[in-house]
């Protein structure tokens, strides 16, 4: 018989389970038998196909063509050195391909590892105790507890349910939540049975207890496993920009090579010299190390963000963060510590702090309200009883027990909290009677009360009493306290519990102090041109008090918009209201929060939104950057988000924005560095064909720079820490190009031309001091020619050493940045110098790269000229800073 059609007792019997759960030994045995509760991933592209792809991208194809042409030339005209060129180019392709694949693989593993920082955990009954374990360890027969926002990790049959509604869209495609109960049903289909919870769905509201009957690939979700995986994330704007840049540079180099091949043909250059020249132009322009450097830089950025408690779930979030202009933030737990303590009590018509009152002065029903009206779960571990749940409810229950512990009372039923009602109720049995206790926002509770309890005597809740309650609420909210109202009613036998005709028992004000780091984070947002808007369900006075304390509000009259007022605004009115420099939204619902986000997007803002509940998911998805809470956040919120705060701290958002800005700037830094060396690699070939001089630089020496000396220093620039001035600038436009005209001008026409000047000067110095005359062609194997090309190569490397420091910032002086800020920079310098010295002074380096040792005076000259280049760039930076 279908498990949905069986009574609960028979369901448990058939699974050899009980409501107290399995014992550990039985659970371990079943885990070995049924396996881990995992859905097999749909296979993406095989590893070998992804590996081969690294050798067929646009850059690689151009180099393959160059190698093929060189091989053809070698076959047609042997002994011209073309085989060395073929070997070098193929070596470049292989090294680049292996390196790119390895870095992409490492980045993929790194992101996977970061995601595993937040495994899905579930509350399960084991050995008669409530425990929290990984969802992977669940087995058939386990009894699991669910609450609003939880994902369902396996197929389950409900055995207890209170207000349970489930989002089944991942299974059925239906967007509307479905009610679920523990009662039996005649429906045979698992997809339609209203007493089953299926893996892959999530609880929109309510609470329940269920027994698992299928795990892993045996679930309905497992049977349609293709629903568990997407086809992979689309390339981010930055990745697309890199591809665009790659094609642009590669096409430019190819066209340039063809043009100068034609020029060489017209001026009568020998065919094979001209052919080598054209290939050299192409190779010199292709920044072979760009793609692997970008890949690793992004991977390192995600790692740095994780260390600063921001877990990136989607790569586009890294770059979008840098453009954020508005942050819509929750209050509780994000701006505050989410550590509630009772600070004010309104009982029997008197308002006073709890430290000057004893239990006798507080209404007994108010204390019972606070002790019993909650959805906390009791957990026993090592004989220690602890309660799990909302910090506010924990604070209330602890306060009430300290005042007057009424002992345990059976929970009969519960009407769970939801964002529309803004209250929750429980039905408790004590002294043989049933009582309904309710708590929630004062305005929602007071509208349902007809009497007030004054020292155990119920009197009519008239206008005077209501005004007294309202005044107390305003006074507490003005102090920044979160105010809750409490009410109760005695139920008649067989009466259906209803929140009506209740007796008001009092108010309790709880303090949730701001996080100490938030005021500084607010100031950083202000200087960075980022607007912060509080969107909260709290009372307006509470929101304003906290906003003032953390520095979000500094003026006398900020715009405070109530959810009801927001609901009545037209889209145009809301957009105009958002122009206010300081604005807070209070008592808002999930739908209203999403309306705020959509209005900001229509205004052209780049919006980041925080959230933790199921009701926040629409706003998180609607925002450019959805930010879920890692500690207090529900599974649904985390899945809807682009970023997860591991510490639920607003300051971590600001840190992540800083890192996001730094990623974009760092890519520009190493792009400037890489492109700068292209000019001193191209100019020797242009001089060779236009002025009929010996070729100052061989192709294999170009590759020694692009894939040898430049690689690690470029990577070090990608690991630069965020500059202190980065958060003192306005957000960059989201459509800003990576390869901007200022960058091209600085890299090609300024830094590159200075490097080319140094390299060509050193080349000619070597020739002229040995007696060379213009017009004289040298044999490629002559010692003078080899030494001159070696000097040209070494000069490019030395200017790149200086350029490494110059590229650390486009405007600020290089002397401002110490090496301690970036240890990878030191390693890059050591490797760069080690490689060039190995090329110049070792027999193997001499043989592979066609070099010879250089004298000390040549090194001194090139170092002085490189320092001169650095001085000129520092002068330029000085004028730029003064102009700004």
From TrEMBL:
An example Gene Ontology CC term for this record: plasma membrane
Transmembrane segments: 55-75, 81-102, 248-269, 275-299, 747-772, 784-804, 824-844, 856-875
Pfam family, one: E1-E2_ATPase
Localization (cell): Cell membrane
PROSITE patterns cross-referenced by the UniProt entry: ATPASE_E1_E2
Listed GO MF terms: ATP binding; ATP hydrolysis activity; P-type ion transporter activity
Membrane topology: Multi-pass membrane protein
UniProt keyword Membrane present: yes
Span of domain Cation-transporting P-type ATPase N-terminal: 2-75
Superkingdom of origin organism: Bacteria
InterPro entries per UniProt: ATPase_P-typ_cation-transptr_C, ATPase_P-typ_cation-transptr_N, ATPase_P-typ_cyto_dom_N, ATPase_P-typ_P_site, ATPase_P-typ_TM_dom_sf, ATPase_P-typ_transduc_dom_A_sf, ATPase_P-type_domA, Cation_transp_ATPase_P-type
Keyword Ubl conjugation annotated: no
Sorted UniProt keywords: ATP-binding, Cell membrane, Membrane, Nucleotide-binding, Translocase, Transmembrane, Transmembrane helix
Main localization, broad class: membrane
Family the entry assigns: Belongs to the cation transport ATPase (P-type) (TC 3.A.3) family. Type IIA subfamily.
PANTHER family the UniProt entry points to: CATION TRANSPORTING ATPASE, SODIUM/POTASSIUM-TRANSPORTING ATPASE SUBUNIT ALPHA
Identification of the protein by name: Calcium-translocating P-type ATPase
């Amino acid at each position: 018989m279908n498990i949905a059609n069986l009574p609960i007792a028979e369901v448990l019997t058939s699974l050899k389970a009980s409501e107290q759960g399995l014992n550990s030994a039985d659970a371990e045995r079943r885990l070995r038998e049924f396996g881990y509760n995992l859905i097999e991933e749909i296979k993406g592209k095989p590893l070998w196909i992804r590996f081969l792809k690294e050798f067929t991208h646009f850059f690689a194809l151009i180099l393959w063509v160059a190698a093929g042409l060189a091989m053809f030339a070698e076959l047609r005209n042997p002994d011209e050195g073309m085989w060395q060129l073929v070997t070098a180019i193929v070596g470049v392709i292989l090294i680049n391909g292996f390196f790119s694949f390895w870095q992409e693989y490492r980045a993929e593993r790194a992101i996977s590892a970061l995601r595993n920082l937040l495994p899905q955990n579930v509350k399960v009954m084991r050995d008669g105790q409530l425990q929290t374990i990984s969802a992977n360890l669940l087995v058939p027969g386990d009894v699991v507890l669910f609450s609003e926002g939880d994902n369902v990790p396996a197929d389950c049959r409900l055995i207890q349910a209170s207000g349970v509604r489930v989002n089944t869209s991942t299974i059925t495609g239906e967007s509307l939540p479905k009610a679920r109960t523990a009662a039996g049903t005649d429906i045979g289909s698992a997809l339609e049975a209203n007493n089953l919870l299926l893996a892959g769905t999530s609880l929109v509201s309510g609470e329940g207890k269920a027994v698992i009957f299928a795990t892993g690939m045996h679930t309905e979700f497992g049977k349609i496993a293709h629903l568990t995986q997407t086809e992979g994330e689309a390339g981010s704007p930055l990745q697309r920009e890199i591809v665009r840049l790659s094609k642009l540079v590669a096409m430019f180099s190819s066209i340039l090579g063809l043009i100068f091949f034609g020029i060489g043909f017209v001026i009568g250059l020998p065919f094979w010299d001209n052919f080598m020249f054209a290939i050299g132009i192409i190779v010199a322009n292709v920044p072979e190390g760009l793609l692997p450097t970008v890949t690793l830089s992004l991977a390192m950025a995600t790692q740095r963000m994780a260390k600063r408690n921001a877990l990136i779930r989607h790569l586009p979030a890294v770059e979008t963060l840098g453009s954020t202009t508005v942050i819509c933030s929750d209050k509780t737990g994000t701006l505050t510590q989410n550590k509630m303590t009772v600070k004010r009590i309104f009982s029997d018509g008197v308002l006073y702090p709890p430290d000057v009152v004893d239990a006798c002065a507080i209404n007994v029903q108010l204390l019972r309200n606070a002790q019993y009206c909650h959805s906390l779960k009791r957990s026993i571990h090592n004989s220690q009883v602890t309660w799990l749940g909302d910090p506010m409810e924990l604070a209330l229950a602890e306060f009430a027990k300290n005042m007057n512990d009424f002992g345990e009372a059976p929970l009969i039923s519960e009407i769970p909290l939801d964002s529309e009602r803004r209250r929750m109720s429980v039905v408790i049995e004590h002294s043989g009677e049933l009582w309904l206790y309710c708590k929630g926002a004062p305005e929602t509770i007071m509208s349902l009360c007809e009497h007030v309890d004054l020292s155990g005597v119920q009197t009519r809740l008239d206008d005077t009493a209501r005004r007294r309650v309202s005044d107390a609420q305003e006074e507490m909210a003005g102090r920044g306290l979160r105010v809750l109202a409490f009410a109760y009613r005695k139920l008649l036998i067989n009466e259906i519990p209803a929140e009506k005709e209740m007796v008001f028992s009092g108010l309790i004000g709880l303090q949730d102090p701001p996080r100490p780091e938030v005021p500084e984070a607010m100031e950083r947002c202000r200087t960075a041109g980022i607007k912060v808007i509080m969107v909260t369900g709290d009372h307006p006075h509470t929101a304003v008090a906290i906003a003032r304390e953390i520095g979000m509000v500094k003026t006398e009259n900020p715009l405070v918009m109530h959810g009801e007022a927001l609901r009545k605004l037209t889209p145009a009115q809301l957009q105009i209201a958002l122009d206010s420099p300081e604005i807070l939204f209070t008592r808002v619902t999930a739908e209203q929060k999403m309306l705020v986000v959509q209005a900001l997007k229509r205004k052209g803002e780049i919006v980041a939104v925080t959230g933790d509940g199921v009701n926040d998911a629409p706003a998180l998805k609607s925002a450019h950057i959805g930010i879920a809470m890692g500690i207090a956040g529900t599974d649904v919120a985390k899945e809807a988000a682009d970023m997860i705060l591991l510490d639920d701290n607003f300051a971590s958002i600001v840190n992540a924005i800083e890192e996001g800005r730094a990623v974009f700037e760092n890519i520009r830094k190493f792009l400037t560095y890489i492109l700068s060396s292209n000019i001193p690699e191209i100019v020797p070939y242009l001089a060779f064909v236009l002025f009929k001089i010996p070729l100052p630089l061989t192709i294999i020496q170009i590759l020694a720079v692009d894939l040898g000396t430049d690689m690690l220093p470029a990577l070090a620039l990608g690991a630069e820490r965020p500059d202190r001035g980065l958060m003192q600038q306005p957000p960059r436009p989201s459509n800003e190009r990576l390869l901007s005209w200022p960058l091209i001008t600085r890299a090609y026409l300024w830094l590159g031309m200075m490097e080319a000047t140094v390299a060509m000067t050193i080349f000619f110095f070597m020739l002229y001091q040995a007696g060379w005359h213009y017009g004289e062609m040298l044999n490629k194997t002559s010692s003078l020619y080899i030494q001159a090309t070696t000097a040209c190569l070494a000069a490019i490397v030395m200017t790149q050493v200086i350029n490494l420091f110059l590229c650390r910032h486009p405007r600020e002086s290089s002397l401002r940045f110490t090496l301690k800020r970036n240890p990878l920079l030191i390693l890059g310098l050591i490797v760069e110098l080690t490689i060039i010295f190995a090329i110049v002074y070792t027999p193997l380096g001499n043989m592979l790269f066609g070099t010879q040792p250089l004298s000390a005076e040549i090194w001194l000259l090139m170092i002085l000229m490189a320092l001169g280049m650095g001085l000129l760039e520092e002068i330029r930076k000085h004028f730029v800073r003064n102009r700004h």
